Each structure stands twice: as structure tokens, then as C-alpha cells.
Amino acid sequence: MDRTVWNGTGYAGQYAPEVAAMYESLDTTPDDLLLWFHHVPWTQRLKSTGETVVQHFYDAHYAGAATANTLHTAWESLANKIDAERFAAVLFRLNYQVSQWTSTPRKSRV
User: Fold this and answer.
1) Are 4 and 12 in contact (CB under 8 A)?
2) Backbone CA torsion sign across 11, 16, 17, 23
């Protein structure tokens, strides 16, 4: 989605002029807002890391999977401190989440 004034929905123009000018330009829009304000190709490089947009998504995906594995392990440590039904329900969801996040093979760096 392009939310710039000059080529998109005009959403960026709703900010104070100095902020709008920052969001209007691809060069000055912060990386964490890049896809909110600009329509860019997956091969667009981020200013902060030099990675492509698609590589950032891959890396964030696998970082999330690592976090999910940590939450799963932490939850299992509570086995005798939470009622069995609630423990089993949450464990089921955590197992499902981990299996979904780790079922896709890791892509090579773009």
C-alpha cells in the first residue's frame, strides 16, 4: 500500500508538515514504517541493516519460532503448578504454534 500524498492514499499528509515530509520520502521513512507508507519490492534494502525486505521477514519468522520454543519450555516448567485441563490446553496450543513455525525449511539468505 502506498500512503504517500504524491502517489498513494494521502494518509502521510495527515501528519504535521515536517513529519509528513519524512514519511513522504522513501529515504527518510524509518524502516519499521516503510511498508506502512510505501509500496516497495521485496528486494528493497533496509537502511538499518542492509537486508532486503524479504530477508527481514524470513529472519523475523525464525526469531519468532525461537521465541515460541522458549515459551513452550517455560510453560512445561509449570506442569505441577497449574490445573491439568488449563495446562494441557495451553500446551496443545504451544505445540501447535511451534510445529507451524518450524515446519517450513529455512530459506537461504537473499
Assistant:
1) yes
2) negative
Query: What pTM was estimated for this model as a whole?
Result: 0.66
Helices 84-102, 53-76: crossing angle, 10 deg rounding? 150
| CA 83/CA 69 separation, integer angstroms | 22
d(CA 67, CA 69): 5
Contact 41, 78 (CB under 8 A): no
Residues 6+ apart with CB under 8 A from 37: 2, 3, 4, 8, 11, 12, 23, 24, 29
Report the share of the chain in percent with pLDDT over 90: 64
Alpha carbon distance 32, 53 (integer Å): 11
Residue-wise pLDDT tens digits, 62-108:
888 888 778 878 888 999 999 999 999 998 988 888 777 665 444 44
Measured CA to CA, the distance from residue 55 to residue 8 in angstroms comes to: 25
